[in-house]
Specification:
59 residues; alpha+beta; two-stranded antiparallel sheet; 1 helix; 5 strands
């Protein structure tokens, strides 16, 4: 699961900074979110606009 770090951390793989996007297990992500250390990135495809939000004005 991909998460964005809200705090810096370091380990055997090196240092990671605030704002870094890292891949962690679902269990680790859940624990980190509960501790306020990261936020989960949205899953799935980004939404796309399906045409204009409002109909065009008639002249």
């Amino acid at each position: 699961m991909k998460v964005r770090l809200l705090v810096p951390r370091s380990g055997n793989d090196g240092a990671q900074n605030i704002g870094d996007i890292v891949d962690v297990s679902a269990e680790e992500a859940e624990a980190m979110v509960a501790a306020g250390q990261c936020e989960v990135l949205r899953r799935g495809k980004p939404e796309r606009a399906e045409g204009p939000a409002t109909p065009p004005e008639q002249a």
